[in-house]
Every structure is written in structure tokens, then in C-alpha cells.
Amino acid sequence: MDSKGFVSEIEAKMVPIAPIVEFAIRKQIAEVGATKELMNPQQAVLFIKNLTEALELFLGEKGAKENQKFMTSTLRKYAPDYFEEKSLI
Predict the structure, then answer these.
(1) Strand, coil or helix: what is 79?
(2) 37 and 8 in contact (C-beta within 8 Å)?
(3) Using one digit for the tens of pLDDT, what is the confidence trace for 38-77?
(4) What is the pTM (predicted TM-score) of this model?
(5) Is 28 exposed, middle or buried (0-12, 13-18, 19+ CB in 10 A)?
(6) Residue partners of 31: CB distance under 8 A and separation at least 6
(7) How confident is residue 81, by pLDDT bands cut at 50, 70 and 90?
(8) Alpha-carbon distance 69 to 83, whole Å?
(9) Which of 63, 62, 53 is nearest to 14 (CA)?
(10) I need a surface site. Which of 12, 15, 18, 66 has the fewest CB within 10 A?
(11) Distance in angstroms (rounded) separating the CA atoms of residues 89 and 80
(12) Residue spans of beta strands (DSSP E) within 1-88
């Protein structure tokens, strides 16, 4: 998995929405025990779940769900083998 690319794409889309999102991203990466450079697909799935919950505070439920879909499709892009293996494509 290209975790650096995954996180960078999420930051590029979401940080401009609300600058506090950058802090939330960093916090959730740390919470799952990963770094931008070293995150496995399982950690990324947990990161998406946790960040979606945090985003509800800033963006409301609808905005959080929209960003959850974006993050999941971004994960598919950067970890296609994981989705293929789990038959989640």
C-alpha cells in the first residue's frame, strides 16, 4: 500500500474544507498506530472509520459520509490488492 499517497490525497481534498481537519487526520493516524509513510490497509480502514466519526463534529453527518466515500475510494486506489483479496471491489 502506498500510504503516503493515500494520506496526501486525503489531506489535499479535506484540509482546505476546514484547517482543523489536518489535526484530526494526524491524530487519527497516531490513534491507529501508523504514520503517513507506514500504514497498512487494515489500519487505513480503521483510520477512515475514526476520521469519519471525527468529521461529523465539523461537517455534520452528511458531509462526513461524503468524505467517507471519498476516503474509501482513495484507499481502493492506493491498496487495490487489499480490496481484491477481501473481494470488496
Answers:
(1) coil
(2) no
(3) 999 999 999 999 999 999 988 899 999 999 999 999 999 9
(4) 0.89
(5) buried
(6) 47, 50
(7) confident
(8) 15
(9) 63
(10) 12
(11) 8
(12) none
